[in-house]
Amino acid sequence: MSRASLLKIIVSYRKPMVGLLLSTLAIVSSHAQTYNIDPTHTNVRFAIDHFNTSTNTGGFYNITGQLEYDPMTKMGDISLVIPLNSLNSGNEAFDIALKSADFFDIEKFPLAEFNSTKWHFSTDKKGSDITKVEGMLTLHGKTNPITLTATKFNCYFSPILKKSVCGGDFTTIIDRRKWGISKYTLLGMTEKVQLDIQIEAAKQ
After folding, report:
1. Where is the Lipid/polyisoprenoid-binding YceI-like domain (predicted)?
2. For all residues of the chain together, what is the average pLDDT?
3. What is the mean pLDDT of residues 23-44?
4. CB under 8 Å to 119, separation ≥6 — which residues?
5. DSSP structure string for 175-187
């Protein structure tokens, strides 16, 4: 057999193998889905002790971003853009104070952002398989790592949107001083702030 004939046989053998490999990769990658954050079902709420007397609460709304989620390969990624002007505590005077340069300084820093760096999954099938999400929170011009604890996470087919929707609840406690927001800490107002994050995102 000539060398040319042998090469033709090898090439003809490799073509279907390459095609099979590409098809397999396409099937695997097709499991990774992209979801757009639904601003009407996504918010970041905060709670902070008020001089050991009561708890002040409020929230940020109209949040945008994207979610990548693949339960088969245990992969997740999320990015959130939080408009600080959407702050609502139910108290207009308190909102104005929080938006001022003493706290969030929204004229200088109108947005906060969260970008995940690592998702943690559990093998316990009794609850959500997502346990924690690590990421970077950018706020007040500073970026620091935080870890969100997942209290629940699930996906379902929305009869209203006619598409898959994923979402869940997450919580963490941060030290506001790390983001340069230390007003009144010397007077006894705690630096610890609890964040409760609710997200919901619809498949693209």
Report:
1. 34-202
2. 87
3. 75
4. 74, 75, 76, 77, 130, 132, 133, 134
5. EGGGGT--TTGGG
